[in-house]
Amino acid sequence: DVQLQASGGGLVQPGGSLRLSCAASGFTFSSSGMSWVRQAPGKDFEYVSTISNTNFPQYADSAKGRFTISRDNAKNTLYLQMTSLKPEDTAVYYCTRDLDMSTRGQGTQVTVSS
């Protein structure tokens, strides 16, 4: 079974940084595209970023220039480095395999507030 566990969230002030991690198991991580999505309170899921199995990154407009997606295939781990955080980035962040929302697993809460 695909298992994805996000971690690294927390409370951070506006302008701050966080690095999220996602531990993957149950599938061939190195062969899979991986994504981050988020859900703010009372809102639908929102796409954040994708990295292909060949390390090609893509970002939502809201993440461009501030977030960096990366992966470590040796550790079966996906990362999201977030900088210049804004209050509107407050959400639960999930990782998914190939943007398949059924794989998202447990997310990690990111709260940006002063």
Q: What are the key terms here?
A:
114 residues, mainly beta, 6-stranded mixed β-sheet, 4-stranded antiparallel β-sheet, globular
Entry summary:
By secondary structure, this protein is an all-beta fold. It is built from no helices and ten strands. The mean pLDDT is 97.
Explain what you see.
- By secondary structure, the chain is mainly beta.
- The protein is globular and about 40 Å long.
- The chain starts with a strand and ends with a strand.
- Helices cover 0% and strands 49% of the residues.
Instruction: Look at the helices and sheets and give the structural class.
Output: mainly beta
How much strand content do the residues show?
over 45%
Mean pLDDT: 97
Order of H and E elements: EEEEEEEEEE
Helix amount, in percent?
under 10%
Blueprint of the fold:
Layout: E1 3-7, E2 10-12, E3 18-25, E4 34-39, E5 45-51, E6 57-59, E7 67-72, E8 77-82, E9 91-97, E10 108-112
Parallel strand pairs: 2-10
Antiparallel strand pairs: 1-3, 3-8, 4-5, 4-9, 5-6, 7-8, 9-10
